[in-house]
Amino acid sequence: MSLSEFSLIERFFARRAERGPQRAVLGIGDDCALLAPAPGQVLAVSTDMLVEGRHFLPSVDPYCLGHKTLAVNLSDLAAMGAKPRAFTLALAMEAPREAWLEAFAEGLFALADRFDCQLIGGDTTRGPLNLCVTVFGDVPTQAALRRDGAREHDDVWVSGTLGDARAALGVLRGEWPSNLFDERELASLQHALDKPEPRIALGLALRGLAHSALDVSDGLAGDLLHILERSRMNARIDVDAVPRSDAVRKLPLDAQRQCTLAGGDDYELIFTAPPSAREAIADAGARADVAVTRIGTISALRHAANEPAIAWHDASHAQLSLTLQGFDHFDAN
Amino acid sequence: MSLSEFSLIERFFARRAERGPQRAVLGIGDDCALLAPAPGQVLAVSTDMLVEGRHFLPSVDPYCLGHKTLAVNLSDLAAMGAKPRAFTLALAMEAPREAWLEAFAEGLFALADRFDCQLIGGDTTRGPLNLCVTVFGDVPTQAALRRDGAREHDDVWVSGTLGDARAALGVLRGEWPSNLFDERELASLQHALDKPEPRIALGLALRGLAHSALDVSDGLAGDLLHILERSRMNARIDVDAVPRSDAVRKLPLDAQRQCTLAGGDDYELIFTAPPSAREAIADAGARADVAVTRIGTISALRHAANEPAIAWHDASHAQLSLTLQGFDHFDAN
After folding, report:
1. Strand A118-126 to strand B83-93: parallel, antiparallel, or no bridges (unpaired)?
2. CA–CA gap between residue B127 and residue B123 (Å, rounded)
């Protein structure tokens, strides 16, 4: 493999980037791109690395992978209430595969263009398949949806449905019979795994409403704990209120709970907001065209020294003791 | 490998980051970091991915690798005339190795702290060893040292010496007998390969002086061409004027030329400036404590449609026809 073949890949992405939105002072082709936030705002910055075998299967459709590589990063912007602006892409692959790269770029730029997000730089090199995106968005400092803002009596909300991506993985792994689902359901589960939709519009609509927010990548149980730890709060969650698709409802109740509470790869938003904002939150969901569901409440720590925790209960208010396994992506070991 | 072990790595880097400079509105621990350029300036952004076997040998000292991972990114800021500000780190490794990570972090943060550069976020995951840094610096838009600003009659300058890193690689590969060099020379060549010094102070001193600049990562011949292509200019270079260390001077003349013109991994700056700025450039080099050497001149394309090219000559002004092999990093294939 010669360096020049990798230069060709860079030029390929650069050409595609030139056809997209131009939102940087200086884009691809210099030592650095030059970027400034919108006047009066700051840049929200996030990095995610996707590795074959861990975040996606070798058999993944490259178009979907292009979509997902950017989507998981945009989801971090959504969780911050930031408006997408630009991104960099570093890509390692063993050998340039033209058709694969073409399809990957199609998926990547289709999503980038939808959110007016410009590729401003990157790097390509030979190595085991690895995709690293750093994404930039605009947000007014005071409006940023942080993890440390949850307050006592806040409602806990979640967008969309949880557990679909994990259910799709279970089908691929043969954890449950695929004939449990009809074709439409199988397709919708697979779609959730392959093409998660970053909740950008909802994140923007929650500015000034939500006290805290994050996106669900490792599963509700683990991710909600990040809000609780940074906000020094407890939460009480109704596991039966956690929204799930009709397909996920076909699973045994135990599996439903595993998928919705500890499934991961959901890229929905969890957020907290005061009860006085319920109507406004419902409106925000409607404007963003995504369901928003109340699943619990935030409460104070009993003692300041206590570790924040989640108390789970079911629809009958019976307390549950759950043993949840964190999302292990595609890890077979 | 459980997720929690990788969370531990993240916490390890986050703890280190907290002890360093705090230059972001919001750092590690949320969905995004929040960052704004200094008032009146823009952010310079660059991404580099380092892969085992390609950019470093598996046997590399992890302290040096930590240094180099950040250094090659800071070098891009230097080439832009930007002041380091912050960086993100995404890291894939097959299994967390505590002593290795400790040493890697030591090297990384030692350099970061020297340049007041804050780790503001990142990602850790299991996978073949891969290090991806995105770096941020401040620069006034008009002062940025771009690649497209070279003008007719500009001098071509280079900082430091070229070829040392490539000479060190030649020793490791047995391309030339290591007893050609004394111990001090071997150490200094290895140092050039392992611990390149980003020319930040020089980049800052060249604001308002240099018309164009970039850093040498793939070799003078290939990298200078990037300036020429973007500036639509030719260059005439005296290959005997290209600065080289006493150690490199011990190689046969052909090997000296390969190392200095097409060696790569140098991370010195190439820049162009008008002859009227010669004294000021010498001053800038002195203030930045690095040698700066004139190696040639920029000339206009004969016809606007021509491809930019470099004309090589030696000290006697005899024209040379060089066959240069681009830097192939550690690629054994």
Report:
1. unpaired
2. 12
Cα(B5)–Cα(A331) distance, integer angstroms? 14
Helix (H) or strand (E) holding B74: helix B62-80
Compute φ and ψ for B284, nearest 5 degrees.
-60, -45
State the sign of the Cα–Cα–Cα–Cα dihedral B147, B149, B153, B158: negative
- pLDDT tens-digit readout, B23-72: 777 878 788 999 999 999 999 999 999 999 888 888 899 999 999 999 99
Beta strands at A155-159 and A269-273: parallel, antiparallel or unpaired: antiparallel
pLDDT at B327 over 70: no
Q: Please state the length of chain A.
A: 333
Q: pLDDT at position B8, please?
A: 67
Q: Torsions phi, psi of B167, nearest 5?
A: -65, -40
Residue B193, token pair as written in the block? 């390969």
Sheet holding A310-313, edge to edge: A212-215, A269-273, A155-159, A292-300, A233-238, A310-313, A319-320
- How high is the pLDDT of residue B122? 87
Q: What pLDDT is attached to residue A3? A: 46
**What is the pTM assigned to this prediction?**
0.91
Q: Which of A146, A142, A30 is nearest to A88 (CA)?
A: A30
Distance between A33 CA and the closest CA of chain B, angstroms: 5
- Tell me which residue in B34, B88, B128 faces A44 most closely, judged by beta carbons: B34
Distance CA A157, CA A134 (A): 27
| Structure-token pair, residue A147 | 């993890």
What chain B residue is nearest to A51 in terms of C-alpha separation? B127
Residue A19 CA neighbour count, 13 Å, CB half: 10
Check B144 against A54: CB less than 8 A apart: no
**Does the structure show a pLDDT above 50 at A195?**
yes
Convert the pLDDT of each residue in A34-84 to its tens digit: 999 999 999 999 999 999 988 888 889 999 999 999 999 999 999 999 999
Contact B51 A127 (CB under 8 A): yes
Cβ distance of A35 and B48 shorter than 8 Å = no
Q: Name which of B232, B253, B233, B228 is nearest B242 in CA terms.
A: B253
Instruction: Report the pLDDT value the prediction gives residue A207, as an integer from 0 to 100.
Output: 96
CA distance B98 to chain A (A): 21
Indicate the length of chain B as a whole number: 333
- Kindly report the number of other CB atoms within 10 A of residue A259's CB atom: 28
Cβ–Cβ below 8 Å for B146 and A92: no
Residue A79 to residue B29, Cβ atoms within 8 A: no
Among candidate residues A136, A139, A110, A100, the one with its CA nearest the CA of residue A121: A136
Q: How far is CA A239 from CA A89, A176, A260, in A?
A: 38, 21, 9
